[in-house]
Write a structure and sequence with these properties.
Elements lengths: L6 E3 L4 H5 L4 H10 L4 E5 L6 H15 L2 E5 L2 H4 L7 H8 L11
Parallel strand pairs: 1-2, 2-3
Length: about 100
């Protein structure tokens, strides 16, 4: 199997997330496995604005393609997009994330 075709979602580290591990640490594990594409999860961030700069630096330094997964319930809490939903969708771009999913 070609590891360059794998996109590893940090959800595979859910147990570590529940134990308090950051997504940056999860990304370090992913790169250590030789995988060059990963997907972080919106709901795994405790403070997205605080965590994102370190992730952006790590992504750039390790040539990682990074996707951003946002659960539908985070986007459409009232049955339609809200200004906060749009902020969630648009905000990742400056952080070095590839399009939201």
């Amino acid at each position: 199997m070609n590891k360059q075709q794998i996109v590893l979602n940090t959800l595979v580290f859910n147990q570590q997330h529940l134990a308090g591990e950051s997504q940056l640490n999860m990304l370090q594990r992913i790169v250590h496995l030789g995988i060059a594409q990963a997907e972080v999860r919106r709901e795994f961030f405790s403070d997205p604005l605080k965590e994102a700069p370190a992730i952006k630096d790590f992504v750039r330094e390790n040539h990682l393609t990074l996707f951003y997964s946002v659960p539908e319930k985070s986007l459409i809490p009232l049955g339609h997009l809200t200004p906060i939903s749009l902020h969630i969708l648009l905000r990742p771009k400056p952080w070095g994330f590839t399009p939201s999913k």
